[in-house]
Structures are given as structure tokens and as C-alpha cells.
Design a protein that fits this description.
Helix content is about 10%, strand content about 55%. With about 375 residues, it is mainly β.
Length: about 375
């Protein structure tokens, strides 16, 4: 009987030892595949790379190139060739930088330096904003009398157009891509009537015989509401107001339809796919709890799909990229479909305190220590 008990004890010990070994193997294999799955999920959203400057540095971005100030130098950093960064001396560190369409410019209170041009430009007043396009820049200036004007220069720094403020107040201006040259839009506000009227005017700056020829290409007025943003596609102009999203045919040939968006403001948009996607957030709210997604058709009749999306807890930034919504919290990045469905969640390996959209497939993320990371989405 004693011998049998000994054999039973040996057998139980062997089974226990085998279970421990199997458990150890399972933990090792699970850990391996867990790490592999984590790395795979990290790679599946795209790529992440650290940038050589911090969030407090003045910077601008266009076509894969960052321009940023580092002390008394301006650095040109190409994300496709990080080792080939170049620099130029700055006369002062108190500058702002603008870039767009492959053009970049430095500006201070009243002077502009187009990168690649020979001389500084004195605009004769205070610079309120500066926009860049492939071959031109537009400067919104306020003179000593308080009168606004938009000054348009070519890349060589030559003045090619002045649009002066008359009875209406100039609110904003910008460029949009076109195969016909640099096309600029201008927003003005009239308060002389009982209700405010916002006017959108477009201008074409096409090169003819080596010179830039300015042509007014269209005008449309919006009454009874203020205009927040303007979005251009190849076949449409979308105007986001305080109450509605309005679609006009390209070339401002007429209004097609309106969608009610009262209580929300346009945060971002994506025009990469067939149906443009518009991302709206509640007006006047500090917490980021919910958003609205509008997937719209560019036809003459409205065919829009609206979705209210409840965001994950802790989300502080949302953007529209490549027909999807991307949301960031301190620890995670979330991908939502155009229908508002959460499709993927990715853990971040840094504390993300803010994010900025750079393009349809790129986002700039700021970590808690001010360092910056470029995320390229697939």
C-alpha cells in the first residue's frame, strides 16, 4: 500500500510539473504573439516618426516639408529626406511662418519675406494673416486708418493685385487648388442692412506671358447668418454658416441645396473620396462628447447621410482624414467610418495632449513634453 501511494504521489507531481511547463510555454507564446500583435497594430495604421522641433517653435507645413524657426535660423525639413535638412539665417526670431502649395513665407508685424525671393516686402500696415499658394501669396493688411485690404504678390515678391475694403469688412481670404492657376477666395461682411450679409468672391491668378493676370470669377451672397468656413472641390463650393451647410455649383453658378446644422460648427472636412465628409462639433462646449458627421452628395439635389457619434471618453481632438473620422485621446487613436462606426482603436506609445491635421493622410501630434510626432495614416 505504501508503494502505491508513492507511485500516486510521483504521478501527481509529474502532472503538476507538466502543467507548470505548459503554462510557462503558453505565457511565452502568448507574450510573443501579444507583442507581435501590438507591433502589427502599430504598423497597420501607418507610420509614426519623431520631429526635430518642439511645439513652441513657429512652424508651417506644405507638401511634405516643415519650415520651422530654431533660434536665429529657419530650417527646411523634408520628411521624405530627414538627413537633407537645410537652413537660412533669420534677421529676428520674432517671426511667423506660412506655407501652402509648395510656397513658404516669413512675416512679422508689417513685413514679408517670401522664401526664394530677394527682398523683404513692406506691406504698409499691420499683417493680420498670410496665405500661400503655388505661385502667389495673399496678405490681409490693416493700414493706419484701420482700413483693410488684400495684397497679392507673385513668388518673386511683385505686387500683382490689391483688393481694397470699401463698405464691407474683409473677414478672411485663402487659396484653393485648381488646374487653372492659383484661385483665391475672399469673404466680406456687410452690416449696413437689418441682417448681416456675407459675400464670397473668387479671383483667378493665371500666368499669361510670364505675368499674373487677375480675374474676378464669381460672387455669391449669404444673408441671415454668418459664414464660418468655405470648402472647395472640383465640382462644388460648400459654405458653412452658423445655421446651415450650403452647396453651390463650382464657379458659383448657383446654390443647389442647404442642410440645417444649427447648434454645431464645422470642425473639419475630407474631400478625398467621392462623397465629401463634414465633421461638426457642438458650439460653445468645452468637453468633446459627441460630434455629427455629414456624408454628402455633390448632385443638384441633397442626398446627405447625417450621423451623431458618441465619442470615447477622454477624446480631445477630432479630424476628418481620407473619408474617415480620426479621434485622439491622451492614450489612444480611434478610427471611425463615414457612417460613424468605430472601426479600429490604436494604443499610442506617448501621452498625446493635442493633434493637428496636416493633410488627408497626415496628422501632427503633440506629447506632454512638447515634442512632436508625425503620424502618416494608411
Amino acid at each position: 500500500m505504501a508503494r502505491r501511494r508513492l507511485k500516486s504521489a510521483d504521478k501527481a507531481f509529474t502532472i503538476k510539473r507538466l502543467l507548470i511547463i505548459l503554462l510557462g510555454i503558453a505565457l511565452i507564446v502568448g507574450g510573443f504573439f501579444g507583442v507581435r500583435a501590438f507591433l502589427s497594430s502599430r504598423a497597420s495604421f501607418g507610420t509614426e516618426s519623431a520631429l526635430p522641433f518642439y511645439s513652441e517653435a513657429p512652424y508651417a507645413y506644405s507638401n511634405g516639408i516643415f519650415y520651422y524657426a530654431d533660434g536665429d535660423k529657419l530650417i527646411r525639413y523634408d520628411t521624405r529626406n530627414p538627413e537633407g535638412a537645410t537652413s537660412m539665417s533669420l534677421g529676428t526670431s520674432d517671426v511667423a511662418i506660412a506655407a501652402g502649395g509648395g510656397t513658404a513665407a516669413l512675416y512679422s508685424v508689417n513685413a514679408v519675406q517670401i522664401i526664394g525671393a530677394d527682398d523683404f516686402i513692406d506691406v504698409g500696415g499691420q499683417i493680420m494673416s498670410l496665405r500661400c499658394a503655388a505661385n502667389h501669396i495673399a496678405v490681409l493688411r490693416i493700414d493706419s486708418a484701420g482700413t483693410g485690404a488684400v495684397l497679392v504678390y507673385n513668388k518673386s515678391g511683385e505686387l500683382v493685385d490689391i483688393i481694397e475694403q470699401k463698405n464691407d469688412i474683409i473677414i478672411d481670404c485663402g487659396f484653393y487648388d485648381s488646374s487653372e492657376g492659383d484661385l483665391m477666395w475672399l469673404l466680406t461682411l456687410s452690416t449696413s442692412a437689418d441682417t448681416p450679409v456675407t459675400t464670397l468672391t473668387t479671383y483667378s491668378y493665371a500666368a499669361q506671358g510670364g505675368d499674373s493676370v487677375a480675374t474676378m470669377s464669381g460672387v455669391i451672397s449669404i444673408s441671415s447668418q454668418l459664414v464660418d468656413r468655405v470648402v472647395f472641390t472640383k465640382s462644388s463650393i460648400f459654405i458653412s454658416g452658423t445655421e446651415q451647410l450650403i452647396r453651390c455649383d463650382a464657379g458659383i453658378s448657383g446654390e443647389s441645396w442647404r442642410l440645417l446644422t444649427y447648434g454645431y460648427k464645422l470642425c473639419d472636412y475630407s474631400t478625398a473620396l467621392t462623397r465629401p465628409l463634414f465633421l461638426f462639433v457642438p458650439r460653445g462646449e468645452g468637453a468633446m462628447n459627441e460630434v455629427k458627421l455629414y456624408s454628402v452628395d455633390e448632385a443638384a439635389q441633397s442626398s446627405a447621410a447625417a450621423r451623431t457619434v458618441q465619442l470615447s471618453e477622454g477624446v480631445h481632438t477630432v479630424m476628418a482624414c481620407n473619408g474617415k473620422m480620426v479621434a485622439f485621446s491622451n492614450t489612444d487613436m480611434y478610427i471611425y467610418t463615414a457612417a460613424g462606426k468605430l472601426s479600429r482603436t490604436y494604443a499610442l506609445d506617448f501621452a498625446c495632449v493635442g493633434a493637428t491635421k496636416l493633410s488627408e493622410t497626415e496628422a501632427l501630434c503633440e506629447s506632454a513634453d512638447g515634442s512632436l510626432r508625425l503620424i502618416k495614416l494608411k
